[in-house]
Amino acid sequence: MGLDKNALIKALNTIVKDLQQGIDRHCCLVSSLLAEKVDEQDLKPIFDLCPSKSRELLLKNAIKEAIDILEESRKAFKSKQLEALRKRLTQVLIDAD
To answer: Given 39, 49, 57, 90, which is the most exposed site by the fewest CB atoms within 10 A?
Structure first.
């Protein structure tokens, strides 16, 4: 198995960047708590960027990409099953919002 060092470095940089952003958010929250200046508006960005939201965003993006690929290939394959899958995935995205 060939190891692509550039891809590994890029992945590590992305992970470190995500971790640093999380640390920054937590520091901000702790500072706000210590200063007793926390309200719902201060907490919303933290909850919006929590790991479950990040995973949700990744899944949504993957579904959108799959839908795009299915849409592009539908004329070439003319498969009723692929069309049904594309429609189900589209409906999942609509229902999730």
So the answer is: 39
pLDDT cut 90: percent of the chain above it? 0
Contact 51, 15 (CB under 8 A): no
Beta carbons within 10 angstroms of residue 57's beta carbon: 12
pLDDT tens profile 8-24: 888 888 889 888 888 88
Cβ-based neighbours of 96, under 8 Å, separated by 6 or more = 56, 60
Determine the structural domain holding residue 86 and report its residue range: 50-97
Residue 38's pLDDT is: 62
Pair (67, 96) in one structural domain? yes
pLDDT over 80 at 75, yes or no: no
Same domain, 39 and 54: no
Which amino acid type is present at position 75? K
Regarding whether 35 and 57 lie in a shared domain, the answer is no
Identify whether the C-beta of residue 90 lies closer than 8 Å to the C-beta of residue 71: no
In this structure, the answer to whether residues 35 and 55 fall within a common structural domain is no
* Same-domain pairing of 11 and 41: yes
